[in-house]
Design a protein that fits this description.
The complex is a heterodimer. Chain A is α+β, with helices and mostly antiparallel strands. Helices cover 29% and strands 36% of the residues of chain A. In chain A, strand 1, helix 1 and strand 2 form a beta-alpha-beta unit. Chain B is an alpha/beta fold. Chain B has one domain: DsrEFH-like (Hypothetical Protein Ychn, Chain: A, 3-Layer(aba) Sandwich), CATH 3.40.1260. Chain B is built from 6 helices and 5 strands. Classes of the chains: A alpha+beta, B alpha/beta.
Amino acid sequence: MTSTTFLDAKGLACPMPIVRARKAMKDLQAGDILEIHTTDKGSVADLTAWAASGNHQITDQQQESDVFKFWIQKG
Amino acid sequence: MTEQKKTTIVLFSGDYDKAMAAYIIANGAAAYDHEVTIFHTFWGLNALRKDEPIKSNKSFIEKAFGKMMPRGADKMGLSQMNFAGMGPKMIKQVMKKHNAMTLPQLIDMAIEQDVKLIACTMTMDLLGLGQSELLEEVEYGGVAAYLGEAQDGHVNLFI
């Protein structure tokens, strides 16, 4: 069973989305999913690079108006 | 387990904007699970000053330096468009609007993320800054302390 944790990073500016993501990811088990919502345009490139560096997998990514949504599986 | 990566930053500048860049990179690197160290030397030491005046035994010149330099991160000026202090006021309003973290907030966040803050003791002597005037979380060292971290570092910046 994978559990999904939600992190609301809307309105946060660089570097906060990845700082919060790292903090949230720490409490998860490998295989768990972290769902993150952001509004910072740089966060798309930031979270992609951050996930790759930490061996996490982005399983899904969506954009709804100006909100970016990511589902990242802990590696 | 992958190898622990290291980021080292030398903060030489006492400008608000440059210090902001240094602390944003430091916080980002910490989020990348790097071991992060910021070495503060010369004007960069002012980012570590407490904002209240501290009583200490100082020579005339040291007192004058202490008065002329910004007392703490929030009092630092901009490297461009400082306009005798108007620039920082304006940019802080813009930062608030965009929800960007201020320099003091970035420093707190760095401390929370276990970023190592080191003050160069030799330049502290030159500028007449004592340990009692700097934040409690600061560690002290010289060039060897910096090189020890930087030689096996992966990211190394001089700002």
